[in-house]
Amino acid sequence: MQNSILLENNKLKEFCRELNIECNTSKILIKINNNKAEYYNFDDNCFYELDLEIAKKYL
């Protein structure tokens, strides 16, 4: 099973605060594929691993 969501605005700020990451981007893509979660930072142009439970909160 694969799910994804594009975070912007307030949801993006909430996500960055929760992970304690810099929020200099206008959007982040969260993706869950089976039991693996990751997020794509468009400014960095790469994927980062993400805790599955955190990812599920935003889907």
Structure, briefly:
The protein is α+β, with helices and mostly antiparallel strands and 59 residues long. The protein contains two helices and four strands.
Separate helix tally: 2
Task: Name the quaternary structure.
Answer: single chain
Please tell me how large the radius of gyration is: 10 Å
Protein structure class: alpha+beta
What is the chain-wise order of helices and strands?
EHEEEH
> How would a crystallographer describe the biggest sheet?
4 strands, antiparallel
Please give a structural write-up:
With 59 residues, the protein is of the alpha+beta class. It contains two helices and four strands; from the N terminus they run βαβββα. The chain has helices spanning 9-19, 52-58, and strands spanning 2-7, 28-33, 36-41, 46-50. Strands 1-2-3-4 form a four-stranded antiparallel sheet. The longest helix has 11 residues, at 9-19. It is globular and about 30 Å long. It starts with a strand and ends with a helix. The mean pLDDT is 92.
Compile the SSE list and pairings.
Layout: E1 2-7, H1 9-19, E2 28-33, E3 36-41, E4 46-50, H2 52-58
Antiparallel strand pairs: 1-2, 2-3, 3-4
List its salient traits.
59 residues, alpha+beta, 2 helices, 31% helix
